[in-house]
Specification:
Elements (H helix, E strand, L loop, with lengths): L3 E2 L12 H12 L11 E4 L4 H12 L8 E7 L9 E2 L4 E4 L2 E5 L1 H10 L3 E2 L14 H8 L4 E7 L4 H12 L4 E6 L4 E3 L1 H16 L14 H13 L3 E9 L1 H4 L5 E10 L3 H22 L18 E8 L2 E7 L7 H14 L16 E7 L3 E2 L5 H6 L7 E6 L2 E5 L10 H12 L11 E5 L1 E4 L1
Parallel strand pairs: 1-5, 2-9, 3-8, 3-9, 4-7, 6-8
Antiparallel strand pairs: 2-12, 4-8, 5-6, 10-12, 11-12, 13-14, 13-15, 15-20, 16-19, 17-18, 17-19
Helix pairs in contact: 5-7, 9-10
């Protein structure tokens, strides 16, 4: 006898009929971000379709089309859970079709990961169900689901599940979560922007569960990405006041997709021409330029250096060590400053604009190095790869990896960096700090 999960929020969170759903999805499809690459994991919201359906549709559209099994990891809104649970339904009934649950995998979760079966918690839950009509429309039912409701103490368990099942490329993951709840609109935007930065920098240690109702799944995916040197790329970020115009009580929504490489490598592969054009326009228009359209990845915090060369000689170089503003702003500002504000050179003349070569270095987040002495520090440095920052009290200096071309010896490189900081080249102290970073160069 079939054990089916009947819908419980159709007509409330989403339309009741296939016809109404198709009309809505056809409209959503006209406003999606076309993926430059598909993904096996996304974070999407789960509010009613009039609020966040377009964003959830956009995010799910980033999933690879050949995925056969989709894990949907969501919080429980009506049922207190300390640990993860699964269901043992045969299928989920929807207005636009049925979706089979992968019983083989859910049985394995029960046996291998000791995750209990509890259908009761799924009965009135919306966070999984609202994703299913979208999946049915996009994938035409050619897949199975593994629904998981996360417990408040199970981040490590969820990360373990993601890591284990990631090995099979037929598996994909949806993390279902809204962001901040019921703050004034401006406050919600600030909270959600901070939350987005935590997600994108894999900083789950400071991730308060009140930032997102699905924080367990989000943090598990972010930790998994950090361990594997993957990146979470923002699709969009907004809140309910953008729909309702109610500024007094807003709910935040965001969507991300996972790429299996460092963020800056992804940016270089997909946006080099855009970045070069942006920097050139900023120089031509003396910083008074902003592109008409940008992808949301450029609203993520980013740090860059812009270097100008003329006839093989340096003509200007200005940049940022730490990502403190959206990457698009940093590119525009540093391109302008390298041309007109580098104190070592006179401002670039108009006739020189087409004579200079532009090189952009996208910086990774600097990582503090732990060392016992200077020899230990030198042993940890990789020439031609590492950019290095040194600090000692009020003294600080940075060298990009390109400096290795002039100073290929590690000792000479470090001594020169000390002199640049205003220190004696023999200087070393207990307060001496060093950080390494990497760059992706676009030129």
């Amino acid at each position: 006898m079939s054990n089916s999960k009947m819908p419980n929020v159709n007509g409330i969170f989403y339309p009741k009929t296939t016809e109404e759903l198709n009309i809505m999805f056809d409209n959503f499809n006209q406003h999606i971000t076309k993926p430059k690459t598909n993904s096996r994991a996304v974070i999407v919201p789960h509010a009613g379709y009039i609020y966040s359906g377009n964003l959830a549709y956009n995010g799910i559209n980033f999933l690879k089309p050949d995925i056969e099994n989709i894990f949907i990891i969501a919080p429980a809104h009506k049922y207190y859970l300390e640990e993860c649970i699964i269901s043992d339904y045969d299928n989920f009934i929807l207005p636009n079709g049925e979706i089979e649950q992968n019983k083989k995998i859910t049985n394995e979760l029960n046996e291998k990961f000791n995750i209990k079966i509890n259908n009761k918690a799924f009965e009135n839950e919306h966070a999984i169900e609202v994703q299913l009509p979208i999946l049915n429309y996009i994938k035409k039912e050619k897949y199975k689901i593994i629904p998981i409701l996360s417990g408040i103490n199970d981040k490590e368990k969820v990360k373990e599940i993601i890591s284990y099942y990631w090995q099979d490329k037929k598996n994909g993951f949806i993390i279902s979560s809204d962001l901040s709840h019921f703050h004034k609109s401006d406050e919600a935007r600030k909270i959600d922007f901070d939350t987005a930065n935590l997600i994108e920098n894999h900083n789950t240690d400071n991730f308060n569960p009140q930032r997102a109702c699905g924080s367990v799944g989000i943090c598990a995916l972010a930790d998994f990405a950090k361990e594997n040197n993957f990146s979470l790329i923002r699709i969009d970020l907004y809140n309910s006041s953008d729909i309702t115009h109610d500024k007094n009580s807003a709910v935040g929504y965001g969507a991300w997709f996972l790429v299996e490489k460092e963020k800056n490598k992804y940016i270089k592969e997909n946006y080099s021409d855009f970045i070069l054009e942006t920097c050139k326009k900023s120089i031509e228009l003396k910083g008074k330029y902003y592109p008409n359209e940008i992808d949301n990845i450029f609203n993520q915090l980013g740090a860059c250096f812009v270097t100008l060369q003329k006839e093989g000689f340096l003509r200007g170089c200005i940049g940022s060590i730490i990502a403190y503003e959206p990457l698009i702003n940093n590119l525009i500002k540093n391109a302008y400053n390298s041309a007109y504000k580098d104190p070592r050179f006179i401002p670039l003349e108009e006739k020189e604009i087409n004579e200079v070569k532009i090189e952009i270095s996208l910086l990774s987040t600097p990582k503090k190095m732990n060392f016992l002495n200077e020899d230990d520090l030198l042993n940890q440095i990789t020439p031609f790869t590492d950019g290095i920052i040194i600090k000692d009290k009020n003294y600080q200096a940075v060298y990009l990896p390109s400096v290795w071309e002039q100073l290929p010896n590690k000792k000479l490189f470090l001594n020169s960096l000390k002199k640049k900081a205003g220190l004696n080249e023999n200087h070393f102290s207990k307060t001496f700090e060093a950080y390494k970073f990497y760059v992706e160069k676009i030129k």
